[in-house]
Amino acid sequence: MSSEVISREVTRRRTFAIISHPDAGKSTMTEALALHARMISEAGAVHGKAGRKSTVSDWMEMEKARGISVSSTALQFNYAAAATPDPDVPNVINLVDTPGHADFSEDTYRVLTAVDAAVMLIDAAKGLEPQTLKLFQVCRHRGIPVITVINKWDRPGQSPLELIDEITERIGLTPTPLFFPVGIAGDFRGLLDRRTGEYVRFTRTAGGAKIAPEELMSAADAAAREGDEWTAAVEESELLTEMGQDHDQELFLAGQTSPMIFASAMLNFGVRQLLEVLVELAPPPGPRTDIEGRPRPVTDPFSAVVFKVQAGMDSSHRDRLAYMRIVSGEFERGMVVTHAQTGKPFATKYAQAVFGRDRSTVDTAYPGDVVGLVNATALAPGDTLYDGPKVQFPPIPSFAPEHFSTLRATTADKYKQFRKGMDQLESEGVVQVLRNETRGEASPVLAAVGPMQFEVVTARMKAEYNVDTIIEPLGFSLARRTDADSAAELNRQRGVEVFTRTDGAILALFSDKWRLQYIEKEHPDLTLETLVAAA
Ligand code: GDP
């Protein structure tokens, strides 16, 4: 495959995730994006009879109902942006899902290693919420540029400047709105395009089921039409310009500023603008640094990183699905590639086309795309697959756990299987395993980002290793990385216990943040480092 073809495919791709707190409107926004990409003809059509009121479709349901290519992990669609030179060669958008709600887990963070940009979706009334903050910290740590969308502008909420201040002050990210709302939250009329000075006026459709018609107006016409609402928007926008809060591509890519849009996913207001901004400003897939520190160009032979592995809980190892993000080259279904960790060949004839509109006809994929691999027994998150000369990418780091439990077998006679299962589940990245001398091998401590990870462990211990296990929550709620020198002093403290993780990291667990703050104050010389995504 010629490198020109690959370059062209890469240039038109954008791979991103939506980071948000439950209920901010991620599903509604996903559906609105699909509507704009004309993958579906009516939003809310999948579940709800009465417009958008009842439920928002879940991706799998959309897939079943519409026959479009959606998986619970990645959604791909074409979108011809206004600036796209040839509408026959539209942009290809990959939206990778960040599981939230009850299934929030380490996978939620790992997904962010597979994207080139993130859309931070914020509820206009609620502002920054805990899960959004955690996901944002991971983006910041990985240098992923963030686009901010203030959602639900059709409902009463905070003022634009309050929201901008909150983001600036709490997370040190400077919003640079591209589109400023005309009308306060709850009275969403349209958007001031800050770069052209023009007005985009929206019209509601019944139940927000269709793409909202837009009317483009000059500033003079907008002033005549919206009066004070227009003037207020223009004045606040000028204030932002005076404060230097205009878009700057370099600062955005460096993670210092965030282009901002105001939207209503429910009414489909601002959704087209979001797509345009993604295409215009979000970076296309780029080179990824391998373990030798060399950037792997996208035009090199095929390589990919596994970022998520899903195992069915019903039967044996066979129904394991691994999701890879392509880093370089062209992927063709059926290719035999090499698994860098074992050096063994891996046949991709069962590659699931989670890409493309039509499952049966699309069987090539390019950098930025996500492909599901069936039967992926040997693959774990962070693993590399490649073709040609060997390449290996760095492992995905472990993220800050916030839930801690002991695990033990209900009977003592299954110790061997227990140990085997534990090792396997840990190597797959299902949970982190912590050990210390006091507790011994028979009751390791499991550490997780979300409690659902524990349920997966007990279910798989039973299904795959035939061991009944009991999970017992421990009274710890946060972890800090420490070192051998500080460990002894920490172990003497009440509400603290020190463990070693399998990767060698020494972690101190604390009952609560007040305990931690007290110890930090009393013993300022102890090493206590924040782990990635710790709140
Ligand atoms: P998720 O948990 O982030 O996926 O949120 P959902 O998309 O399920 O939305 C949560 C609730 O907010 C649902 O009742 C939606 O109908 C509602 N919602 C989402 N977006 C908007 C919006 O732009 N305006 C209004 N008024 N409601 C919205």
Automatic annotation (TrEMBL):
It comes from the Bacteria. Keywords: Cytoplasm, GTP-binding, Nucleotide-binding, Protein biosynthesis. SUPFAM superfamilies: EF-G C-terminal domain-like, P-loop containing nucleoside triphosphate hydrolases, Translation proteins. This is Peptide chain release factor 3. GO terms for biological process: regulation of translational termination. PANTHER family: PEPTIDE CHAIN RELEASE FACTOR RF3. GTP binds at residues 97-101. Belongs to the TRAFAC class translation factor GTPase superfamily. Classic translation factor GTPase family. PrfC subfamily. The gene is prfC. Its main location: cytoplasm. GO terms for cellular component: cytosol. InterPro entries: EF-G-like_DII (IPR053905), EFG_III/V (IPR035647), G_TR_CS (IPR031157), P-loop_NTPase (IPR027417), PrfC (IPR004548), RF3_C (IPR032090), RF3_dom_3_sf (IPR038467), RF3_GTP-bd (IPR041732). CDD domains: RF3 (cd04169).
